[in-house]
Amino acid sequence: MAVPATKLKEKKEIIDVGLEEGAARLTYEKIEQVINRVITGEMAARMKVYVDTCIHCGMCSTACHYYLSHGTPEWAPVGKVKQTMWEILEKKGKVSPEFIKRASIIASTECNVCRRCSMYCPYGIDIAYIMATVRRICHLLGVTPQYIQDTAHSHSATMNQMWVKEDEWIDTLQWQEGEAQAELPSLRIALDKEGADIMYSVIGPEPKFRAQLIYQAAILMTAAGVDWTMPAGPGWDNSDMAMFTGDFEIMGRVKRTHFEAAANLRVKKIVMGECGHAFRSVYDVGNRWLGWKMPPIPVIHATQFYYELLKEGKIKIARKLKEPVTLHDPCNIVRGRGLHEMMRYLVNATCENFVEMYPNREQNHCCCAGGGVINCGPPWKTKRVESNSIKAEQLAATGVHICIAPCHNCHGGLDDIINTYKLNMHTMFFIDVLMKTMEIPDSLKA
Amino acid sequence: MSESKKWDWDTSEELIATPSEWKTKFARVQEPYVGPDGKKVAAIVRNEDGTYTACVNGEAWENTYDNMWNLKFGPDGRLTAIVSEAGEWTLAVDGVPWENKFAYVWDTKFNEDGQTIAVKIQQDTRYGVAVNDQPWENSFEHIGKYVMTPDGQHVAAAVQAVPLREAEVFKFKDEGTWTVAVDGNAWEKIFTNVWGLDCSPDGKHVAAEVRMGLYDYTIAMDGEMWPEKFNCVWEPVFRPKTSEALATAPVRAAGKWTLAVNGKPVWDSKFVQCWHQTYSPDGRKLAAIVAPSFGQWTVAIDGKLWATTFNELVQDLTFSPDGKRLAAIAKDDGHWKMVVDGTPWPAMYDMVWPPVFSPDGSKVASKVEKGGKYTIALNGKPWRECEAIWNPVFSPDGKKVLVRSIEDGKYYRRIVPVSEF
Ligand code: SF4
Ligand code: SF4
Ligand code: SF4
To answer: Taking residues A261-288, what's their average pLDDT?
Structure first.
C-alpha cells in the first residue's frame, strides 16, 4: 500500500466563529492585562527557563508530524513557540487581537501536545507545556475554537463531554445491559454498587456514539468475574476537553466529580476505557491541579487492566486473530505512562501476526487528533489530516489492514487519515480484539 | 436519633433471613441492602420470566416489574426502588408504585425522617422533581444537583431554564442557561452554570455555586450573587442554629483556597485545596478538608490544622453530636485510616466507611474492610470478621451498637454492648 500523492490544497483561511468573534471583542489593554496576570500569577518558573535555554537548534523539528508532513519551519515545534510564546514574552503582552487569534490557531490546531518533541530536544524543553500555556491565555481571553469550546461548556454543565443528560446515561447502560444479557444472562451493569472492587469509567462519546463499547466491557467484566460498578450520576465521564482549552477550573471540577464518585462508591480502583487524553487528565494534569499528587483512588487504563486479567488467568484466549495487525501507541499512555510493553503482550497474546509500525513505542508519531485538535471540529478537519501525511506513510508501510489503537481520539484521527489517504485499513480497540478472541466460559452462556 | 429510640435495643441476636438461599427461589439475586433498624434485609431479584421484584426477608413484593434498580431504604424503614412497567418509570415504595409515571426517574432522596421522598423526573424531554408522588408544576430543559430541607418541606435544584442548541457557545457563556428552582419555581436570574447548592435549615434560603461567563465564580443566595467574585468556588453550606442566612463556601483567589461567609473570608489561612466544609451541629465550629501543601491533606478546624497530614486523600469529615470532636477518614501510602481529632487509629484498612459517633461523642465506630472481610471497629478495636456488614448505629444511651451483618449467607441483627469491642 503506497500513499497516493495527495497534493496539499491551497491554504485557505478557515473561519471559526469562536476565534473570529472572540478576537473581535478584544482590546490591547485586555490582552496585556490577562497575559501579565498569567505570567506573574500562573506561569511556572520552568517557562522562563525553557525560553531562556532554547538555542534555536531546530532538533525538535523532525519530531513533529506537522513538520514532517509540511516541511516548512513554521510547523516545527520551535517555530510554533517562536510565533506564540516568544512574542508574548518579548512584547510583555503588548500583542494584537489578530496575534491572539493566530496564537490560538497554532496552539489549538497545530499542536497535539503529544510531547514527542521534548524527547528530541537536547534540553528536554517541554513544548507541549508551552503550547498548553498559550491555550490557557487564549481561554482567558475568550478566543478558543468554537467546537472544543462547546465541549468544554458541556463538561461544565453536565460533567460530561457530549451533553449527555443524566437519564440518557442511565438509560443507555440499561439498554446495553439488556442487549448483553441475551448473550450472558447473568451479566449486570451494576449502577452505584457501593463497595464494588472497581469503578469503570468511560468518555462521553461512548454512551453517545459507541455504546457497543460499554456492552463489550460488560461482557469482559462478566467473563472475568470482576466485581464492578458504574456511577449512575455525574462522574462517569473521565474525559476532559477543558484541560485542552486551558479552562483549568472546569477541568478540576470535572476531575473532582470523577474521583469523588469513586470515593463515595468505596471502590478500590478505577478502570478507565481505552482513551488516551482522559488518562492524562486523571493521572497527571487534573488531579494535580486539585492538589492530589497522584490519583487519590488508583486509576488504570483499560490496556493495563486487560494485561493484568490475562496475566492472572482471569480471561483466557480461545483463538487468536489470524489477520496481520499493527499497533498505534497513543502518546498519552506511552510517552505519558509507559504502557507500550503491556500493549505488546496483549497483541501477541491475541493476534498471530503482529507487524510493528516504525517508529513505535514512545517514538510513535501522534495521530494528529489528540490534544483537543479533533475536537476543534469540522472546520479544521482537512488541515488536521493534511498535517499528518507522515502517519499515512507510517501506516501504509506496515502493509496490514488492521490497526489496533487503544484511544478514542486516535481512532477518530486514524480513521480520517485512512479514509483520506485511501489506506485499505481499519481501526480496532483492544476490546474489539478481545471480543473476537477471548474465551467465554460455557457456564455463563445463554 | 429520634427514630432509633423506638427500635428494639434488647434482643441480642436475631437471625432475620438467609439471603444466600434466595437463589433457589429466583433466577438472579442482586446484592442485599438492610433497613435502618436492621429488621429487614432486601435485594432486587429477577424471576425466571425475566421480570423484577424485591425480596424482603425472603418474601417477594407482590408486584413485578419490567425493570428495577436503585433499591434504597429510607430513614423510616420504608423500602424504595425505581421501577418500570410498559416503558414508563416510577418509584415503588414498599412494593406499591406511585400513581404518577414518567419517561424516566432517578436519584432518590429522603428528608431526615424519611416522610418526604423525592426523585428527579423526565417527561417529554422536560425535567423536574417529583416529591411524594407529586411532580413539580414547572419543568425545565435539564436538571443538575438537588437538595431537600431536613423537614422535607422544600426542594431546590439546579436547572437549565433556557434552551441551547448545538455549539451556541456565545449564548451559553454570555446569556447563560442555568438557574435554581425552589419547589419548581425558578429564580429570575440566569447564570452560565449552577452547581452545588444548599438550603438553610429553616428552609427560607437557598445558596448555590454559580459561574457568570467563563471566569467569574461566586455564590448566589436567593437569586442574588455575592458582590465578590473568585477564580473558583465550591458548593456552599449554611451555618445551622442561627436566624441569619450565612452561606459558607470555599473560594479561590490568586491560586489559593480559603473559606468565605457571605463573600468575606473567615479564615486567615490559605490552602492548595479546601472543600467539604462542615459546621458542628450547634453551628459554632467550622471545619474543612484542606491541602496545606501540594499532595498533603488534613483537616482545618476554625482555620487551625490537625498536626498529622496524609498524602492521598481525606474525606467524610464528621462532627460528634456535641460538636466537641471531629473525625474523618484518610488515605496515606495506599492505606485507609480512621482519624479522630487528628490522631489516626493504629490499624490500617483496605477500606473505611464514614465515622459514626456515639451520642455523647466519646466513641467512634465504623465499618472497615481488610483482606476481603468486613467488621465494625469501635475506637479502633475490631469486632469479628463477616462476609458483609453495614454501618454501625449507637443506641440512644450510647451503651450498645446495632450490628447488621451477613455470616455464612445468613443475615443477623445484633445488639452488641460497647464493652464487647
Ligand atoms: S504536535 Fe507534538 S511534536 Fe509537534 S509541537 Fe506539538 S507536542 Fe511537539
Ligand atoms: S530542540 Fe530544544 S533547544 Fe533546539 S530549537 Fe527545539 S526546543 Fe529549542
Ligand atoms: S489521540 Fe492518541 S495519538 Fe493522538 S495525541 Fe492522543 S493519545 Fe496521542
So the answer is: 96
The CA distance from A325 to the nearest CA of chain B, in Å, is 38
Question: Under a CB-based contact definition with an 8 Å cutoff, are residues A410 and A357 in contact?
Answer: no
Of the candidates B276, B275, B247, the one whose C-alpha atom is nearest the C-alpha of residue B261 is B247
- Cell digits of residue B165: 442548541
What's B114's domain CATH number?
Answer: 2.130.10.150
Do A296 and B217 count as a contact with CB atoms less than 8 A apart?
no
- Both A239 and A369 in one domain: the answer is no
- Residues A93, A43, single domain; the answer is yes
A402-404 vs B59-60, strand pairing mode: unpaired
Residue B35 lies in a domain: yes
When CB atoms are compared, the residue of B27, B107, B167 closest to A146 is B167
Question: Cα(B20)–Cα(A446) distance, rounded to whole angstroms?
Answer: 23
Q: Is the peptide bond before A295 cis (omega within 30 degrees of 0)?
A: no
A270 pLDDT band (50/70/90 cuts)? very high
Asked if the structure places residue A98 within a domain, the reply is yes
> Is residue B149 a part of any domain in this protein?
no
Q: Which residues contact A131 (CB under 8 A, 6 or more apart)?
A: A80, A81, A84, A106, A107, A111, A113
Q: Residue type at A422?
A: K
* Structure confidence at residue A6 (pLDDT): 44
A157 CB neighbours in chain B (<8 A) are 142, 144, 160, 172, 177-178, 193
Asked if A77 and A116 touch (Cβ cutoff 8 Å), the reply is no
Q: Quote the cell numbers at residue A328.
A: 498505534
ipTM: 0.98
Helix (H, G, I), strand (E, B) or coil at A174: helix
Supply the pTM of this predicted model. 0.97
Structural domain for A401, as ranges: 325-437
